[in-house]
Amino acid sequence: MELERLLRSQGFGSRAESRALVWAGRVSVAGEICDDPLARFEPEGLVFSVDDVSWDYRKFAYLALNKPADYECSRRPLHHPSVYSLLPEPLLKRGVQAVGRLDQDATGLLLVTDDGSFIHKCTSPRKQIPKLYEVITRHVVDDEQISALLSGVQLHDDPQAVAAAACVRLNERCLQLTVTQGRYHLVKRMVAAAGNRVEALHRASIGGLTLPESLAAGQWMWLDAPELALLALNQRMDSSAE
């Protein structure tokens, strides 16, 4: 692949902008400055640098973001900063999107990608991927509320009761709640229907992928094949993620 096309595919602007980066001596490949925008490279496994920042070529970008509170999962936020402001410009130019959403006051694991097929598989109701939330409640959680969440609570917009896949009380005002659906304010509405109120909400895992303790709020990391396999999507991810 020509270097200018490769840079464009990785979010470094149009072909003209990518060509200008190369001519300016701002691009290195395998540690060597390359000033020929038409130089050809095999993209698979390629490591390149722009302005001394190293990047691996990836056909698709798969990210895990530790969403902080008071950020909106929108490109046009209304009241708080966008989660996309936490990502570098090349990823934004690639058109990455959040896989589902977390409320502005919720924290924790958020998947981000530019792979539309991946988004569809992650959000498909048929997949029923479990999502584990840590929930702080306003009132003491009693056995009756636990039972209601496990057996199913009635929501206003669903004729059928919605049940948690698992519910563990960690202390009198803290739950670990696992759901397999991805509806608007689902956890908050379920807890309210059980007779309590959510005060704080943190998504700790999706499928078998757990938010690393080392990933601070506001930070992001690449997801490679081993991490993607933990999502149990029953698909073979593109080898560029390996």
Topology:
Elements: H1 3-9, H2 15-23, E1 27-29, E2 32-33, E3 47-50, E4 53-56, E5 62-67, H3 89-93, E6 97-98, E7 107-113, H4 116-123, E8 131-137, H5 143-151, E9 166-171, E10 174-179, H6 186-193, E11 198-206, E12 209-210, E13 220-222, H7 225-229
Please explain how this structure is put together.
The chain is 21% helix and 25% strand. With 242 residues, the chain is an alpha+beta fold. Strands 5, 6, 7, 8, 9, 10, 11, 12 and 13 form a 9-stranded mixed beta sheet that branches. A 4-stranded antiparallel beta sheet has the order 2-1-3-4, with no helix packed on it. It is elongated.
Q: What is the overall pLDDT average?
A: 90
What is the CATH architecture term of the largest domain? 2-Layer Sandwich
Can you identify the CATH class of the largest domain? Alpha Beta
Q: Report the count of strand segments.
A: 13
Our measurement of the CA-to-CA distance between the termini, rounded to an integer number of angstroms, reads 19 Å
What helical percentage do the residues reach?
10-25%
Overall 3D shape: elongated
Beta-strand percentage? 25-35%
What order do the helices and strands follow?
Answer: HHEEEEEHEEHEHEEHEEEH
* CATH level-3 fold name of the largest domain: Alpha-Beta Plaits
Gyration radius, in Å: 21 Å
> Which parts are unreliable, with pLDDT below 50 for 5 consecutive residues or more?
235-242
Sketch the major β-sheet.
9 strands, mixed
CATH superfamily of the largest domain: Pseudouridine synthase I, catalytic domain, N-terminal subdomain
Count every helix, treating DSSP H or I runs of 4 or more residues as helices.
Answer: 7
Q: Structural class, from helix and strand content? A: alpha+beta
Give the tally of structural domains: 3
